[in-house]
Design goal:
Family: Belongs to the cytochrome P450 family.
Number of domains: 1
Pfam families: p450
Order of helices and strands: EHEEHEHHHHEHHHHHHHHEEEEHHEE
Protein name: Cytochrome P450
CATH superfamily: Cytochrome P450
GO molecular function, one term: oxidoreductase activity, acting on paired donors, with incorporation or reduction of molecular oxygen
Number of strands: 11
Low-confidence stretches: 1-12
Radius of gyration: 22 Å
Structural class: alpha+beta
Organism: Streptomyces globosus
Shape: globular
Largest sheet: 6 strands, mixed
């Protein structure tokens, strides 16, 4: 006998919830509210078959993200439980940690500054040029392929100091580089190493230029190689790996957010008109769209470095914790009327779209400006923008680090 219950010979454990919950980025997974209310720290089974703790309330999500006893870097260690197979080089997992330890943080942060000379003007010009091309070809058009991807990639080409015409070559490999798979596959890292060679060549090209002609982060790296004794030990491959990581993570994240932000507006066309009439409110609107964003479909992973209590659960050292952003950012304990996309939301919008704590996204200000300019130009140029197909006909990508429609067909 056990606990007054009949002895059935074996205690039947409750089935684990399979994670991720959904690949659609236009509908909140129905499990979110139930988990947050009944099991804000719940045991789940990941894509690899490993077990993890899924944290779905705002307060507990922030606790995990701000507590240094939960490590991002250690999710790349051998033998740890994973959300999906490690298909990118381990040094890419905690890129900013690598950047900081190499003494490159100051150079990187300067390159990510949205107020750097000429950047916003260049973004606006790029947005207009892409819409000119869309208009010339006529509707319908795939907004992701014709606008979001090239616009986001062009910004990162400029930031890094590589030719903007190379955006397609650089974006083409990311569909493989950011796959989420059950098992490692032999060629998963080929794109990373191919692009390391590309950026190493571009770094050499920057180094060959006079100092006043160097541009972007690679130009700053070329200067460090020449004049900073503390950087003398860094190889061209190390500099190039930083550039590859920034382009990959940055271009995918900004494009995915922009696609889902536009989709959310297309499903509420009255908001497009409101934004057109109130461009001065674009910053507030972008923060609300960030809160609403469902692009992170696999949670934010951390490995516990010690036994830590999270809510009613004792998370043991070495266990995997996944922060469910769509749980936290739709928590009624943190946001009034969270189920409503309110572009006039006045209270401080302390969403977790950029993370929190040590790993708060260093490009958060750049990401906001990127989206603000894109949406300003879109609603100004295409006030009649609309979905060209029923929303239920959108095809959502599987096995990818972001929730993303394969195409976003629009008309205007």
């Amino acid at each position: 006998m056990s606990g007054g219950q009949p002895d059935t010979g074996r205690q039947q454990a409750a089935p684990l919830l399979d994670f991720p919950l959904s690949r659609r980025g236009d509908a909140l997974p129905e499990e979110c509210a139930r988990l947050r209310g009944k099991a804000p720290v719940a045991r789940v089974r990941t894509l690899t078959g490993d077990e993890a703790w899924l944290v779905s309330s705002y307060a507990l999500a922030r606790q995990v993200l701000e507590d240094d006893r939960f490590s991002l870097r250690d999710t790349a260690n051998d033998g740890v439980p994973r959300q999906y197979a490690l298909t990118i080089p381990p040094e890419v997992v905690d890129n900013m940690g690598t950047i900081t330890s190499a003494g490159l943080r100051a150079a990187v942060m300067k390159s990510l500054n949205p107020r750097q000379a000429g950047l916003q003007e260049a973004l606006r010009a790029t947005a207009h040029a892409l819409l000119d091309a869309m208009a010339a070809e006529g509707a319908p058009a795939d907004l992701r392929a014709a606008f979001a991807d090239p616009y986001s990639a062009a910004m990162h080409c400029r930031i890094l100091g590589v030719p903007s015409d190379d955006w397609r070559r650089l974006m083409s490999g990311l569909d493989v580089a950011f796959m989420t798979a059950r098992e490692p596959f032999a060629d998963s890292a080929l794109n990373w190493y191919k692009d390391v060679g590309y950026f190493a060549d571009r770094l050499a090209g920057q180094a060959a230029l006079p100092a006043e002609e160097r541009t972007g982060l690679l130009g700053r790296f070329a200067e460090l190689k020449e004049s900073d004794p503390e950087s003398a030990h860094l190889t061209d491959e190390m500099f190039a790996t930083v550039a590859v990581s920034l382009f990959g993570a940055g271009a995918v994240s900004t494009s995915a957010f922009l696609v889902l932000a536009v989709l959310a507006l297309l499903q509420r066309p009255e908001l497009i008109g409101w934004l057109r009439r109130h461009p001065e409110r674009m910053g507030v609107a972008v923060d609300e769209l960030l809160r609403w964003n469902l692009s992170v479909g696999d949670g934010l992973p951390r490995i516990a470095l010690a036994d830590v209590r999270v809510g009613d659960v004792l998370v043991r050292e070495g266990e995997l914790v996944l922060v469910l952003l769509e749980g936290a950012n739709f928590d009624p304990a943190a946001f009034d009327r969270p189920e409503e996309l309110d572009l006039e939301r006045e209270s401080r919008n302390a969403h977790l779209a950029f993370g929190a704590g040590r790993h708060f996204c260093p490009a958060s200000a750049l990401g906001r400006v990127h989206a603000m300019i894109a949406l300003e130009v879109l609603v100004e140029r295409l006030p009649g923008l609309r979905l060209a197909v029923p929303a239920e006909n959108l095809v959502w990508r599987t096995g990818f680090i972001k929730r993303l429609p394969e195409r976003l067909p629009v008309a205007w």
